[in-house]
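=== Discrete structure encoding ===
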Amino acid sequence: MGLPMRAMGWIFALLGLLLTAPAVAQGFPVAIEHALGTTTIAAAPKRVVSIGYIEQDFLYALGVAPVGVRNWWGDYPYATWPWAEPARAALGATPEVMPGDEVNLEWVLSQNPDLIVAVYLDLDESTYAALSKIAPVVANPKDYPLWGAPWQVELQLIDRAISGSTAKADAIIAGIDAKVAAVRAKYPELEGKTGTNVYYDPAEGNFGAWGAEDTASRFITSFGLVFPDALDKLGDRDNRITISPENLKLIDLDVIVWPIDSPIDRIKETVEAMELYQNLRLAKEGRSVWLDDGHGTFSGALSFQSPLAIEYLLDTMPQMLATAADGDPATAVTVPTTP
């Protein structure tokens, strides 16, 4: 005997609810494990505040407009650098910017957040506890050294916190992985060459690098370059490697990228004038990539290492690396002027 039409209608309505409801609430509540514990997020957040150094970029890439962000450096409107500005504008995001260098609890509270993102931040337990009284907090990924989590892991962590899944993050990762693979195919000469990023501090007179697990280091090695083990072993707890001038031989690699935040620092001129530097292959064979674009935009993107920053760098950085790695001083590295 067939069911009455009214009963059939109820069954079809119930099936419709079962098929559509999970797409809305499938991932919540969600438990996010991070370096400082586990945070449970009851429902999809609507007011996200980013207090880490770079997370606004990740949120924009995921299609989320934060209500509050932190300014690392650069002093751009809404703390948004040029590579992320189109994504911010497309979302119509006009976030408040947290003042000062420290986490301002009163400012965070005033944003009335329902999620606080602190993934790229050295967050201590007491500040984490105080922030957790305001809203759920997602700290840096566990099982990775400070500043050493791959950007892919950070993106997936943030995506789960805001959407309950990693679907958007996975799609972004797949897209960038495909572009990196294309770069490696285009520049096979980079495979196996040694290289990393080196910074010069004129105030201290020392050189510095970050370990192999630093996000900027990972970016350089993603094209087939190799970070030397001997150099990596010199890193401290924060992956920081300090190199005195007399030990410059440690960085005489096939390629060195020199981030320059501001042209007024005159880092390039200072280092190139050093006799110790002039005796290195870096100088004699033109193996240095000086990111002197006039505004520090390339250096900023290298430090941010967000999906948006990486997309920006993929258009120009591989060519610079390949030109430097050929060991021919006659082929000068060209760094475009940036906004």
